Amino acid sequence: MERIVKDFENIIKEENIKIPFLNISESSTDRYITWGVNSKLHVIANDYYTNPTADYLILIANRNLGIDENDWGIDILIRIPYPYESALERLNVSYENYKKIYLNEA
Hints:
Blueprint: H1 2-14, E1 31-34, H2 41-49, H3 55-61, E2 77-80, H4 84-102
Helix pairs in contact: 2-3
């Protein structure tokens, strides 16, 4: 699982490669909060995952709001994929499907 985390961190943050088809499917275990004026993804990620660098999970889950949290509206409901391990597993399923379809990897 740690390799998957590093792969996604590299893909999304360090290399700044856009993968438009990745998503994190919804689950009954997900949490929802209202986005406020002073909300920050890394703070929310730390609160829910005890890992501020896992903010990309919340960003992917709320991709419909845009890629810059500073552009998100106030008082909107955002989804936090939860728990952390489940969010990673769901993201990995999306990544494996992406590879099969678009990269022709079995």
